[in-house]
Design goal:
CATH topology of the largest domain: Aminopeptidase
Bound molecules: zinc ion
Radius of gyration: 24 Å
Shape: elongated
Structural class: alpha/beta
Distance between the termini: 15 Å
CATH superfamily of the largest domain: Zn peptidases
Number of strands: 16
Length: 383
Amino acid sequence: MNLPTESLKQDMITWRHDIHKYPELGFNEIRTCKLVAQLLTSFGLKVYESFGKTAVVAHLEKNKNKKLIAIRADMDALPIKEKTSLHYQSQNTNIMHACGHDGHTATLLGTAKFLSEDESFDGNILFVFQPDEENGGGARVMIKNGLFEQFKISEIYALHNMPGMPVGYFATRENTITGSESAFEIEVQSKGGHSALPNMGGDALLTASQIVNSLQTIVSRKVDPRKNAVFSITEFKTNGKKNILASKANLKGDTRCLDEETKLVIQYELKKICNGIAAANNAICSVKFETNFPITINSPIPTKRITKCLKDKFGDKRVESNCEPMLFSEDFSFMAAQVPGCFILIGNGTSGANAKPLHSPYFDFNDDILTLGSSAWVHLAKM
Ligand SMILES: [Zn+2]
Ligand SMILES: [Zn+2]
């Protein structure tokens, strides 16, 4: 049997549109989880729903002597109001599958259906459907609930669609494939006071403004210029009012980079700058820094295996085996830190909704790549 079969393609499209129409946020994928579990059960697979909240796992074991390969898909959507006008547009207010996790889920469901019906398949596969990728909670919960203890997984794989990359193309790389994401919160406290008497008070707004500007020197002046990093402040709130100086200012933001050392430099400089500027202004400052997503590291063995598999299946020219690392983050990083793993990118197309950036209200996963993704997984499973 060889993918794609026309009926399986139609099934995957139907499932994807259905999931797209009823998107659910992280850890609230109740309908999606139910649909996924029902389908996996109907394929005759052993289904587990014990790995945390809305996680679903299915095990296909044909040969106990062979190693167990896990493939992970994410199921959660985003708090975005969809503007695509598609016939299967989101029916859930202000929630949208704007990252293509509907497509990742449908791709893995298609793979599960195909392999469970394929009598020539004699390997072992674990289909891992995880909740809450966007907030970095799903993989952690599944690990905490014993996914890697209950199943002796040898290698784990995942894919993500890439808008702007042509259909039929794949990319990956050994070592760092996606960056770390750390969130920070800064609170500046000052005396406040009358806007006409600033000399007698303290202005948290002005102090925080100096902090905002100075923090931009971390990437330009403290990080090794050969390294990659991005630092963004995305929120600035104060309790100041008309003619009242702010006594409190709160800043929030995030920073991403591709290696641990750079992250430590950013964390150290962030605290130093905040405390230094606060002290110079007679203010007090507190800084919280938390890494929600570590760097995703692709291990050599699974990366070589999937690269060979993709090149065999789609041709050398369609597989970039040493792509640039991405500065977005992925909670697959937690799973790939448990066992050797590989994260791959699949082209989502170069025009229309398929080329809109991830998390855009105009984005859509490309139905034409459902069979490409599932063919890649099937080929990997049978290698
Ligand atoms: Zn996303
Ligand atoms: Zn995503």
